[in-house]
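Handout, section B. The chain below has 125 residues.
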Amino acid sequence: MEGARLQSRLHPRCGTSFLLIVSLLAVLLYAVSDSLVQLYLGEAPGVWLRLLTHVSLLPLVAGSSFEVLKLAGRYRDRAWVRALSAPGLWLQLITTREPSDDQLEVALRALHEVTSEPVPVAVTA
């Protein structure tokens, strides 16, 4: 239990960071795509065309965001990666909190069930 408590609740590959990356990348990519469609058509795209364009670009946004998140985890010791990951970690300060002993106990029990390794936790039923 104490070993688990020593771990930080903040992590560059957290889902909160992923959602932040998705949001920022989507705004950027959708703005560019809307501008390109407007340039091609000569007028602002309608709602249905924008919806079709945005939905078709969604796999690109999600996949690119996931790759950025993987790179952030792999190269987290580099200063420029830490700087780019900082907003996601700041957001985690708002969206997460330290787990209680009961939550840690459940997490360690689940880890034990998955790995079949002995976990030294006194479980109270």
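Note. The chain is about 75% helix and 0% strand. Compare this with the example in section A.
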